[in-house]
Amino acid sequence: VARVRRLHPDPAELDADAFLAEVRFPAAARDERPHVAINMVASVDGRTAVRGLSAPLTSPFDRALFHALRGAADAVLVGTRTLAAERYAPLVRDPARREARVGRGLAPVPIACVVTRSGQVDFSVPLFDEPEQTVVVFSGRPLAAPDRPADVQVVELDAAALEPSEALSLLRSQHGVDTVLCEGGATLNGALMRAGVVDELFLSVAPALAGDRAALPVVAGEAAAPAPLELRWMLEADDTVFLRYGVTRAG
Ligand SMILES: NC(=O)c1ccc[n+]([C@@H]2O[C@H](COP(=O)([O-])OP(=O)(O)OC[C@H]3O[C@@H](n4cnc5c(N)ncnc54)[C@H](OP(=O)(O)O)[C@@H]3O)[C@@H](O)[C@H]2O)c1
Known about the structure:
Structural class: alpha/beta
Number of strands: 11
Order of helices and strands: EEHEHEHHEEEHEHEEE
Number of helices: 6
Helix content: 10-25%
Bound molecules: NADP nicotinamide-adenine-dinucleotide phosphate
Largest sheet: 11 strands, mixed
Radius of gyration: 17 Å
Shape: globular
Oligomer: single chain
Strand order of the largest sheet: 2-1-10-11-9-3-8-4-5-6-7
Distance between the termini: 41 Å
């Protein structure tokens, strides 16, 4: 990564590696669910994909931050369409990254988690090739665990009760998860926002106008009211702007 500038707070040139090594989530303040942070990259016109993939929007520091956030999370939640479209790979492959997690008191690899009401999950993606990867699938339909090297744990829930907040509480109570990183997509983000269970948003604004009408914005679906955000940091590298927001809740 070339040069990273912090624009807010305290403008400064940053040592990217030192900065990323210190990225942490705040200690979970609630008992009923983990701390939840969304991480997304979007074009300047707010689109989260170009021809169905996020790769054209990303950049070296964006990828480095993406991995640093994974490095700090107990679990990574991902939408079923993103899992399939992005051909999800094992979450942490680099032995040095696994060691760094263990050094911080975390499991070597975060738990991967998907929520599906239809029971349609693409088990052919490379995520399921990794024997050290636990994947928890909350399903609203009966679903057999696939015969794949990963440790796939299917939790069947009543489809009517299958809300993201239910999955989050179970991750907390049954898997000891304190921090969840949600890597999108927009549809899942929308469900989490409507349930009022998002604490932070990491948004990378890529220097591009995607002009892709089919691509979704960062959060899809109707919101009851605009969600107020509080700026926690603003960085710049490779002409991309990196925003970290706290999601403030009304009442
Ligand atoms: N730019 C970025 O940072 C970024 C990040 C991620 C993805 N993407 C892009 O976004 C696209 C995929 O996003 P997407 O929004 O189409 O899909 P998505 O959010 O990845 O997955 C949507 C699926 O989540 C499941 N789901 C479970 N509970 C839900 C609930 N309560 N409400 C709504 N959905 C629920 C649904 O499956 P069931 O019907 O089975 O319940 C639904 O089809 C891809 O093109 C990907 O490349 C971009």
